[in-house]
TrEMBL record:
Protein name (record): TraB/GumN family protein
UniProt cofactor(s): Co(2+); Mn(2+)
Coiled coil feature spans: none
Family matches, as InterPro entries: TIKI1/2-like, TraB/PrgY/GumN_fam
Any GO CC annotation of this UniProt entry: membrane
Taxonomic superkingdom: Bacteria
Length: 291
């Protein structure tokens, strides 16, 4: 159970990949999950790749242009630096809370949550010491339509290649930053509301996967921001605020080394997406169809 929650938590760190409606698969020149960043004093281009954190083996594919962009870069940057043991320790610590979940609910609410958790192969007794963030991670386990043994983590596969080729590895933020964002965006009551939508996550997960496989970035943006799963306050905390902080850090990183940034696809598009924020800083940011 703990391993499954860790898997789900990794998925929810940085991208809420949920949706409630199918969208048109038609793409155009802007619909790419790989973007080149150049100009504004950069001696070499850098790249931003939108990722889907966890995919079933049958759906997993990293396109040649992604590998080529990574190979041409000197530095690999993830949202969290998974090679930093301090960060991994922080993730472990963040899974538990000082106050039991049952102590924060009425007896009726606790009984209702216990029934909901049956759908996740758990019960309140098993998760009573979980933090709201860890409890929220269970949502992602319903959105992964295959056993834990049949999944791959997109960033981890890229990380393996980066380490094999002796590239430097860095992160855009800390686990504590992400934990704060999730905690502020989804309090315990809101987490429980999301858990109740579990079947909808399961049903729509494959639609998100198909949009990702088709590099349908605009569609992904619409789906991620569906108000059923993410209201405006949550969008600000989970996406906008973090994007702004990342866009402030990225120029110094790109100036020092040609870098490959791998971030959840939900962080790329829109007024407050990384593409637009970097353009506003004077960079040329263009989609890459092949490389």
């Amino acid at each position: 159970m703990k391993n499954l929650v860790k898997l789900g938590f990794t998925a929810l760190l940085s991208m809420n990949f949920m949706t409630s409606a199918a969208q048109d698969k038609k793409t155009d020149n802007d619909n790419s999950l790989l973007w080149e960043v150049s100009g504004n004093g950069l001696s070499k281009p850098s790249y931003i790749a939108g990722t889907f954190h966890i995919l079933c083996n049958k759906d997993f594919d990293i396109k040649p242009k992604i590998w080529n962009a990574l190979n041409q870069s000197e530095n690999f940057v993830m949202e969290i630096n998974y090679t930093d043991q301090n960060e991994m320790g922080a993730m472990q610590k963040m899974m538990s809370a000082d106050k039991k979940i049952s102590e924060q609910l009425t007896s009726e609410e606790a009984a209702e949550l216990d029934k909901v958790l049956v759908n996740y192969g758990a019960d309140l007794k098993k998760v009573d010491r979980y933090s709201p963030q860890a409890l929220y991670a269970l949502v992602a386990t319903k959105a992964i339509p295959c056993p834990q043994t049949e999944v791959k983590m997109y960033e981890i596969e890229l990380l393996k290649a980066a380490l094999k080729n002796k590239k430097s590895v860095n992160g855009l933020e800390k686990v504590d930053d992400q934990a704060y964002a999730i905690g502020e965006a989804y309090n315990l009551k809101e987490v429980i509301s999301q858990l109740k939508l579990g079947n909808e996550y399961a049903i729509t997960s494959q639609k998100m996967t198909e949009a990702f496989k088709n590099e349908n970035l605009k569609t992904l943006d619409q789906l991620i921001k569906d108000p059923k799963f993410m209201n405006k306050k949550q969008e600000k905390l989970m996406l906008t605020d973090r994007n702004i902080k990342w866009a402030e850090k990225m120029p110094a990183i790109m100036k020092k080394q040609s870098s490959f940034f791998a971030v959840g696809s939900g962080h790329l598009w829109g007024k407050n997406g990384l593409i637009n924020l970097l353009k506003a800083k004077g960079y040329t940011v263009k989609p890459v169809s092949s490389l």
